[in-house]
């Protein structure tokens, strides 16, 4: 039985990127021809999986002409997809890079309001497409109009279908869903501190807090992303810090999603948890080496992975 990866995105986006020479108010700023990328947590994970040479099924909500555009971008990228239609228009965000300062300005808009029958249809589709042993990667925020505990409903389906539930979200949706059965959770430091009810976490407190979290929740693997410092892997009987290689960062967009993609591919290929997080950190770091929303590429990720393994064995 071949396991598959299914990604779920509830608030997808078209990322529109342009460059301009100098930003100043009250003048017409002449931008370059825009480039368009499909974005939003799960979609980024699917894109990164494709770039790393594997396949996934990408499920998401889409509406209006922007939703059609999003579908076309994914078709062009060769990504297997199921788009559940909604009345609202899929959002589009804008990233503007000022070539005179090399600073990037990112403008994000809220997603469309999703109605109850629309998200109920999505849950049905999800149930139809999940099989035992599949990986379900739920990544990104909830759009307006959806209940905070929506991912709890998703987790229940995953549990029923004996699917491995991987969660990467934030805010109230994260807090509510941690009461569910989770195979792997990937918070950053800020998200972990809100889950543990503390305002911040020092390096000394990280391991004990990770252990405490695992004792109190039905979660098999906790991977805390630490940005340029790598990641902390914690399970009931293993704690390990995986360092990240130092690279020249060009954009951090999609680094977390690239990390998740690398980890899931590693699991699919029978790697250990330690190797999984090492490859995840390599993919996340590789994503920061490219402009805009390009995500990671396999060649960079494989090189960085070798470096990480070398550091661990040194």
Question: Would you mind describing this structure in some detail?
Answer:
α1 (41-51) crosses α8 (255-268) and α4 (150-160) packs parallel to α5. Helix content is 39%, strand content 24%. It has ten helices and 13 strands. Strands 5-4-1-8-9-10-11-12-13 form a nine-stranded mixed β-sheet, with helices on both faces. β9, α5 and β10 (182-185) form a beta-alpha-beta unit. The radius of gyration is 19 Å and the shape is globular. By secondary structure, it is α/β, with parallel strands linked by helices. It starts with a strand and ends with a helix.
Class by alpha and beta content = alpha/beta
Which residues form runs of ≥5 with pLDDT under 50?
A: none
How many E-type strands? 13
Largest sheet: 9 strands, mixed
**Average pLDDT reading:** 94
- N-to-C span: 38 Å
> Helicity level, as a percent range?
25-40%
Order of helices and strands: EEEHEHEEEHEHEHEHHEEEHHH
The general outline is globular
Whole-number radius of gyration? 19 Å
Strand content: 15-25%
Order of strands, widest sheet: 5-4-1-8-9-10-11-12-13
**Total helix count?**
10
């Amino acid at each position: 039985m071949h396991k598959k990866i299914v990604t779920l995105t509830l608030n997808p986006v078209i990322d529109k990127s342009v460059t301009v020479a100098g930003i100043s108010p009250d003048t017409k700023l002449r931008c370059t021809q825009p480039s368009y990328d499909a974005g939003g947590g799960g979609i980024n994970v699917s894109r990164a999986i494709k770039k790393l040479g594997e396949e996934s099924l990408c499920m998401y909500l889409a509406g209006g002409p922007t939703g059609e555009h999003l579908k076309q971008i994914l078709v062009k990228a060769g990504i297997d997809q199921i788009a559940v239609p909604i009345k609202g228009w899929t959002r589009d965000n804008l990233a503007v890079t000022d070539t005179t300062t090399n600073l990037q300005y990112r403008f994000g808009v809220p997603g469309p309001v999703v109605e109850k029958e629309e998200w109920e249809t999505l849950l049905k589709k999800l149930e139809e497409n999940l099989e035992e042993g599949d990986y379900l990667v739920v990544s990104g925020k909830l759009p307006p109009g959806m209940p905070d505990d929506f991912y709890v409903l998703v987790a229940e389906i995953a549990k029923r279908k004996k699917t491995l539930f991987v969660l990467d979200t934030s805010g109230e949706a994260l807090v509510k869903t941690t009461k569910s059965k989770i195979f792997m959770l990937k918070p950053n430091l800020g998200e972990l501190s809100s889950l543990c009810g503390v305002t911040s976490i020092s390096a000394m407190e990280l391991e004990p807090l990770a252990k405490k979290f695992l004792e109190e929740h039905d979660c098999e693997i906790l991977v805390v992303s630490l940005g340029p410092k790598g990641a902390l892997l914690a399970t009931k009987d293993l704690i390990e810090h995986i360092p990240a290689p130092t690279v020249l960062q060009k954009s951090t967009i999609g680094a977390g999603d690239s990390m998740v993609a690398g980890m899931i591919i590693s699991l699919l290929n029978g790697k250990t948890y330690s190797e999984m997080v090492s490859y995840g950190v390599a993919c996340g770091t590789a994503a920061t080496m490219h402009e805009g929303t390009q995500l990671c590429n396999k060649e960079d990720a494989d090189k960085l992975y070798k470096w990480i393994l070398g550091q661990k064995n040194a």
